Amino acid sequence: MSDEINASISKGSQAMDASIEHLQKELSKIRAGKASPQMIAGIKVDYYGTPTEISQVATITAPDGRTLAMQPWEKNMLGPIEQAIFKANLGLTPMNDGETVRIIVPPLTEDRRKALVKMSKAAGEDAKVGIRQVRQKLMDTIKKEVKDGFPEDMGKRKEDEVQKMVNSYNSKIEKMVEAKDKDIMTI
Predict the structure, then answer these.
(1) Do 52 and 113 belong to one domain?
(2) CATH number, domain containing residue 166
(3) Are the CB atoms for 1 and 148 separated by under 8 Å?
(4) In this predicted structure, what is the pLDDT of residue 1?
């Protein structure tokens, strides 16, 4: 019985790690005034009738803190890349010079910074919800095992272990969101 609880806790820990990784990806998409290839890497481009991520059809670089450059592997992809960036509605204007597509990232206004901070906090809250859902499943598993004959005091210890794990992940989330908020608000 203890093995089943330990296996569940191990799976729960992996699910919580996945929540943290997802939060990192979401936070990397929120721009903090600096140009970053992750800002546009996930945008889908029409590649011969198939929606394909820009990162799959072009090299994305940030030559400086305010510029992004996309060098497509096929010249005929310049137009579709430009159109995809417009359609993504990121507030960025692509410029096609016949060789590359460039984007000049404008500086953030105070209102936009505050909106981005709200977005990062919302992403952090979503991650915490995921952690709580995993916690609930683990607690249900422990209670079921206790009902089926697992010693009650050992069950309480396992519940405490799960709660400590949840607290640890929640503090990681808070630190990540706090660091992103600081990065966004830094001019």
Answers:
(1) no
(2) 1.10.132.20
(3) yes
(4) 58
Tens-place pLDDT, residues 105-120: 877 788 888 888 898 9
Parent domain of 152:
2-29+109-185
The β-bridge partners of 94 are: 103
The CATH number that applies at residue 69 is 3.30.1360.40
Pair 66, 6 in one domain:
no
Residues 39, 40, 42: CA angle, nearest 5 degrees: 110
Q: How confident is the model at residue 63 (pLDDT cuts 50, 70, 90)?
A: confident
Q: Which two tokens stand for residue 41?
A: 């890497």
Return the number of other C-beta atoms located less than 10 Å from residue 136's C-beta.
11
- Which of residues 104, 124, 150 is at a domain's end? 104
Domain total in the chain: 2
